[in-house]
């Protein structure tokens, strides 16, 4: 007979599975992360895994959306507490550092990520798309801030800045300092 979990145990196990997934995904990628190892780290059987997630892909989808939501919420708080373009600069720096910790946030053009996306249900793919749109709204939906340039161009610059993380290993100088320098010097050109 299968053991039942208390609500507290369920919450802890689900959190442990998500954290193990996040760490393994960052280190090994989607394909090399396996459910058996995640279950061992969470202290449950493989059969019990399916009490929490319908599939490996549903866990990955939840982790990706959760991390994106956390990053957006933290960045949004920074923007709200500093209601000027310098708050946006600080939010961008925070986002960049989170991307640095979680490479799966920016490796969407990798074969590994494509394999994951191909295995997602339509609903899961839509959830990821909606999650991706949150960050765009973070910069477009600020009534107290006005772009100096076309909004599409501004969003392209912001996206390009953040995606520069893909070049971090080939830069001759510390990539975080480089990013901060670029943000500090571009923010006046983006916002009034």
From TrEMBL:
InterPro entries: Homeodomain-like_sf, HTH-type_Tx_Regulator, HTH_TetR. The keyword DNA-binding applies. GO terms for molecular function: DNA binding. Transmembrane segments: none annotated. The keyword DNA-binding applies. Keywords: DNA-binding. Pfam families: TetR_N. Residues 11-71 form the HTH tetR-type domain. Residues 34-53 bind DNA. This is Transcriptional regulator, TetR family.
